[in-house]
Amino acid sequence: MRGQRSLLLGPARLCLRLLLLLGYRRRCPPLFQGLVQRWRYGKVCLHSLLYNSFGGSDTAVDAAFEPVYWLVDNVIRWFGVGRNDIATVSICKKCIYPKSARTHHCSICNRCVLKMDHHCPWLNNCVGHYNHRYFFSFCFFMTLGCVYCSYGSWDLFREAYAAIETYHQTPPPTFSFRERITHKSLVYLWFLCSSVALALGALTVWHAVLISRGETSIERHINRKERRRLQAKGRVFRNPYNYGCLDNWKVFLGVDTGRHWLTRVLLPSSHLPHGNGMSWDPPPWVAAQSASVMAV
Ligand SMILES: [Zn+2]
Ligand SMILES: [Zn+2]
Question: Which residue ranges run through the membrane (predicted)?
């Protein structure tokens, strides 16, 4: 009987305590409530500041699977996968598939991309072997357009800006609603075009430098690391995809003859890039040039 009573009293006491606690919270003074709210707000801020996307479960699983990736990498090589027509240099640990030279895995697109340059968040797509030329052309012509627009609208911008400055004078100017909208639109247009010309221009120049060197944005980091490593050993790094500045541009733009500068560069063209993105033999005219240099 006593045992049964204690069995019933236990949960009853617990419920009572919970009710008292709830009642206490309702009756707690405003100062305490304010402190509790600040504490919760601080916790949210701290979590937001210290949030790390690399601390997620995906990263933990990847790290845990690293030995499996290593096993796959080595066992597949041992079985001879990859010793086929495709010139492979490694195995993609995510796709578990042979990966050719200059190919990199994009974690956003979740696939391997031939001659991957970078993942562009503006295009929501990867920039690689088949669209690198389009990407560069877009950046270059967009920059030119913005520079033209900023330069061409400079006088209009100055007039509109001077007019806006008189809005708050006494007596107020007699501009109509349409004129005021035109002034503001011109100022907005000039600032927008100039900002885009600066930002996109810097990106275009950076890509032009990389193309002149015959490397992609990813290869820039890899080659720099390799250059330092070999330098420490007293050796010189040589980029195998660098055929010389002008030839790099010709290969990149797909210019085989002089006429192509007009038909393939200045005019819109849908020609495919050199090679299939798997093997990286230089174009015949580059190979012929280097052979003649060797002969000399
Ligand atoms: Zn991959
Ligand atoms: Zn991507």
Answer: 134-151, 186-209
